[in-house]
Amino acid sequence: MSGLRLVTVGGMIAYRALFNWTRPALFIGTLFIGPLFQLLFFAYLGRQLRVGDDQFFLVGNAVLTASLACVFGGTMAVANERRFGTLGHVLLSPRSRTAIFWGRVLPYAGNGLLISVFTLTVASLMLGLSIPLSALPGLALAMAAGSLACGFFGLTLGALGLRFRDVFVISNVAVAVLLLLTGVNVPPGNLPQWMVVVGQGLPVTHAAEAARMLAAGRGLDAAAPAIGQELLVAAAYAVVAALLLKFFEAESRRRASLDTL
Amino acid sequence: MESDYAIEADGLRRSYRSRTGWLRPRLTTVDAVRGVDFTVRRGELFGLLGPNGAGKTTTIKMLNTLLIPTGGTARICGFDVEKQTREVRRRIGYVFGGDRGLYDRLSALDNLRYFAELYGVPARDQRRRIAELLDLVRLAGREQDRVEGYSRGMRQRLHIARGLLHAPEVLFLDEPSIGVDPVAARELRQTVANLAATGTTVLLTTHYMAEADELCDRIAVIADGRIQALGTPSELRSRADGRRVVEVEAYGVPDTALAALRDLPGVRETAVETRGTLQVLTVQSDAHVDVQSDVLRELAGIRLGRVDSREPTLEDAYVTIVNAS
């Protein structure tokens, strides 16, 4: 029970403490308006270049919009401890690191889901895309899986912040990589094989694939394997993040690498 | 596992290795702590004094599990700091001085709520415990304010409240009064004294001798990574017995004059403390030698303020110990 409190209550307080974009202007501007225009940009670019139809860009990019909040949020969940000088106090906790840091991912995943739903809704209304009502629960599931995978991916990057000071550089690159390799804007068939292989291990790829199937009316049965793969990717990053956090904490005790406490 | 001692350090060592250069990397090793031995009884208020870079903070970080010793062992309430970290962390609190170490965007209440979760305070006890601590550190009524608007003294008091959330048996206070105003520092000393009175073991590092003299049951002076002296404040003061101190306020004393003071017959120690443009020179001499007139002669032509001759204090003893290291 107390472990659950640490994950939920602790996660929410940590979100408010560490997320840089909680002020209303930043929150709305950075997480809603910016991603919406990014989505529209790719949708109109797609129309211009005739690479894919509106549904291809709109649904894929709606899943991808979660990545900004989740990848940067997951990174901030660890790296901002350095900024506030609180890392030492967190590491002095006798409680499970895994529970502390996994709990921090959940609010970002929820945040990402909210952004995906918002951008999909607004962009569909603007571009006149109709999605079957029956697809909505499945779409929500696919987006939630994508957001969760992005959050744990961000936490993995954040774990590197225990060792490397400028970890946000990596997050910036990671967001650009997601834009290219997840098949959201460039169909996998048009990418070199190695990029497709890398994309399979990234968050969003499978969730976007599932969301497209659902939006096309193919039903949850058809999309379930892709959603399952996305959840597997999320689980894999959750494990990698936990292992990295454990390793870098042990390393910091040995090598005094956390000089800023 | 019960132990008579709250803290036991046995031959504690810590070296830092750093690597510089890419093409021809060079490894440098610095021995920050070179074999420290001491014990602290349960309920004792123990001071660790020393100049900057002496090894105080490194020693505390080894004791509170943030650093692994490169040699020796340490135990907190009988638990090994390297291998039984979880047991140790349940029993310790850590407070350090300065502006950082709190979540600025959160209120004091939310900071305490979060660390109550991290430090395993049961949910049913959190509200009561936090209210008690807010009262103790005199932040009740301001707990809903964001920490970013707090003064340094208020932050420092919140640091202490955070360190006490889980009622630790051992509290490490690493220069808690650094940068706080005299009134806040006095309140802080009172809080620390109250803690010790309730049976909490406190290990305090500070630069302020008066603070250590007033609070500590025993003091260890650490310099160059080793304990140079250990005893009660009065035992340490006796290191300067048989001496006399001349204290001179001066402005713009050149190094040559300071060197000349050190060479005067009967002078045992000299120290300079700079406060803005003012320099306070402290000259210790053998008690039977009156060096005041010689000191003033060496400072001829320099603008002087108050000149005083007095008995040695703990600070003078500290200077003697550190200079001898």
From TrEMBL, chain A:
GO BP, one annotated term: response to antibiotic
Keywords: Antibiotic resistance, Membrane, Transmembrane, Transmembrane helix
Keyword Nucleotide-binding: no
Residue ranges annotated for the ABC-2 type transporter transmembrane domain, each copy included: 21-213
A molecular function GO annotation: ABC-type transporter activity
Membrane topology of the entry: Multi-pass membrane protein
Coiled-coil residues: none
Main location as per UniProt: membrane
UniProt-annotated location(s): Membrane
Membrane-spanning residues: 25-44, 56-79, 105-127, 139-160, 167-186, 231-248
Annotated signal peptide: none
Cellular component terms per the entry's GO annotation: ATP-binding cassette (ABC) transporter complex
Protein name (Swiss-Prot/TrEMBL): ABC-2 type transport system permease protein
Species the sequence originates in: Actinoplanes xinjiangensis
From TrEMBL, chain B:
Pfam families xref list: ABC_tran (PF00005), DrrA1-3_C (PF13732)
GO terms, biological process: response to antibiotic
SUPFAM superfamilies, sorted: P-loop containing nucleoside triphosphate hydrolases
InterPro entries per the UniProt record, alphabetical: AAA+_ATPase, ABC_transporter-like_ATP-bd, ABC_transporter_ATP-binding, DrrA1/2-like_C, P-loop_NTPase
Residue ranges of every copy of the ABC transporter domain listed in the record: 7-249
Chief place of localization: membrane
Organism (species): Actinoplanes xinjiangensis
Protein name: ABC-2 type transport system ATP-binding protein
